[in-house]
Write a structure and sequence with these properties.
Distance between the termini: 31 Å
Order of helices and strands: HHHHHHHHHHH
Radius of gyration: 23 Å
Number of strands: 0
Number of domains: 2
Helix content: 55-70%
Strand content: under 5%
Number of helices: 11
Oligomer: single chain
Largest sheet: none
Length: 232
């Protein structure tokens, strides 16, 4: 499953990778073509530009995450506008089978107000294995997953900036959104494709609700990405 915001992060890494490749190639050409002093002067200019590109790429990842965090903060606030008549089924005490409940979870996977009603309904039911298997992912959990992807992206950007090997073999970028990795697959299953999330950007919520996730911040990593590990 592809997620639009994870894909945006991947494109940032791919763009930065190409910028680094181009800059490094020019550094090599300058050393071959110019006298050492002139080559070093020109290459210092290139390195300064590469540093700016690294900062710009980090900021792009931060901005993607910041937008998602804002959408999810708005989505986390109950909104009567998102209530549907189906809520009456969960409020009436009517008996619903696990399969029927799962159908409603799928129907309202992007309607977090209805998902909260369904989640509360499940909690009121007698304990059962079938009900325990129903997964409802609310905004706070989704944000944790997006945070994981954003921090992995920051790690990969750092590795590109300091490690020439990834320029030749960018496997971490290729695996970033790959269903072939169980860890990635499971996290993509939780956040879905991300479509419709931006609709919450204009949701009418109290000012305080807009900032309820402001303490969820990215850590600027300089460690190896966890997607794929190897010594370099």
């Amino acid at each position: 499953m592809a997620n639009m915001y994870v894909n945006q992060m991947k494109k940032v890494m791919e763009k930065y990778l190409e910028q680094q490749r181009a800059g490094n190639a020019q550094i090599v050409r300058n050393r071959d073509y110019y006298m050492p002093e002139i080559a070093e002067e020109k290459n210092n200019t290139i390195r300064a530009k590469q540093a700016e590109q690294y900062t710009a790429a980090q900021n792009e990842i931060e901005n993607i995450f910041s937008n998602v965090r804002r959408y999810l903060a708005n989505a986390n606030f109950p909104n009567v506008g998102y209530l549907t008549a189906d809520r009456l089924l969960f409020e009436s005490g009517m008996s619903l089978s696990p399969a029927e409940i799962e159908g409603f979870v799928e129907r309202y996977k992007s309607n977090f107000t209805m998902l909260r009603i369904i989640s509360d309904f499940i909690k009121r039911q007698p304990e059962s294995l079938a009900l325990n298997k129903i997964e409802i992912h609310l905004p706070a959990e989704l944000l944790d997953v997006y945070k994981w992807f954003a921090e992995e992206a920051l790690k990969i950007l750092y590795k590109i900036s300091v490690n020439g090997l990834i320029l030749e073999d960018p496997i971490e970028i290729n695996l970033f959104d790959s269903d072939a990795l169980t860890t990635v697959h499971d996290k993509l299953e939780i956040i879905g494709d991300g479509h419709g999330l931006s609709d919450y950007g204009s949701a009418d919520v109290p000012e305080s609700a807009k900032h309820q996730f402001d303490t969820v911040l990215l850590t600027a990593h300089t460690a190896q990405a966890n997607l794929y590990s190897r010594s370099v």
